[in-house]
């Protein structure tokens, strides 16, 4: 692990060598530029996590990265990664719905966004299979239990929506006929 960190820091140093301002920063502070940039990144991350940017940071982690990896999964020939990201989105959706109902309470919890961020990383990181564990151990049973009820309500909603659209287009057509006469 330490060797990987050193390798990444050396790659960062080579990339930072392109920018003369980084050399000036290193000379004035006597801090290697790669450490200065990493430190600044950690400070920005902490600022976002513990300030008004915490919600934004959670949305980036919860939406942006999984959306990108979902895109990659869709485009890959492997179907197992498709399932992994579908499970992520099901779990994330349920989490978001629950969060909406209890949001008044959640925002009083100190470091809520730090916990939320850790949870989202747990859900989305492929090596941990957090979303799959939550789905298999909780959500799958709940969804299977209420599947026929939900399907019946969805069918009724579709029928109501179709009737409303038909009604609206019939009313619109009558209005057009009256305007022409």
From TrEMBL:
Primary site of residence: membrane
A matching Pfam family: TB2_DP1_HVA22
Protein's cellular compartments: Membrane
TM ranges: 42-65, 86-109, 115-135
Entry keywords, A to Z: Membrane, Transmembrane, Transmembrane helix
This protein's GO CC annotations: membrane
Membrane topology type: Multi-pass membrane protein
PANTHER family: HVA22-LIKE PROTEINS, RECEPTOR EXPRESSION-ENHANCING PROTEIN
Protein family (similarity comment): Belongs to the DP1 family.
Name used for this protein in its record: Receptor expression-enhancing protein
Source organism per UniProt: Nannochloropsis salina CCMP1776
């Amino acid at each position: 692990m330490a060797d990987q960190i050193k390798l990444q820091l050396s790659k960062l140093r080579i990339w930072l060598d392109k920018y003369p301002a980084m050399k000036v920063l290193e000379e004035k502070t006597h801090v290697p530029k790669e450490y200065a940039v990493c430190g600044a990144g950690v400070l920005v991350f902490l600022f976002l996590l513990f300030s008004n940017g915490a919600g934004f940071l959670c949305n980036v982690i919860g939406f942006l990265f999984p959306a990108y990896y979902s895109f990659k999964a869709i485009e890959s020939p492997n179907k197992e990664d498709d399932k992994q990201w579908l499970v992520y989105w099901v779990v994330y959706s349920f989490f978001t719905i629950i969060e909406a109902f209890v949001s008044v309470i959640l925002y009083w919890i100190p470091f809520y966004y730090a916990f939320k961020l850790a949870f989202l990383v747990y859900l989305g990181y492929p090596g941990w299979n957090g979303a799959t564990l939550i789905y298999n151990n909780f959500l799958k049973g709940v969804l299977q239990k209420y599947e026929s009820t939900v399907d019946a309500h969805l069918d009724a909603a579709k029928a109501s929506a179709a009737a409303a659209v038909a009604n609206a287009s019939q009313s619109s057509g009558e209005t057009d006929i009256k305007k022409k006469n």
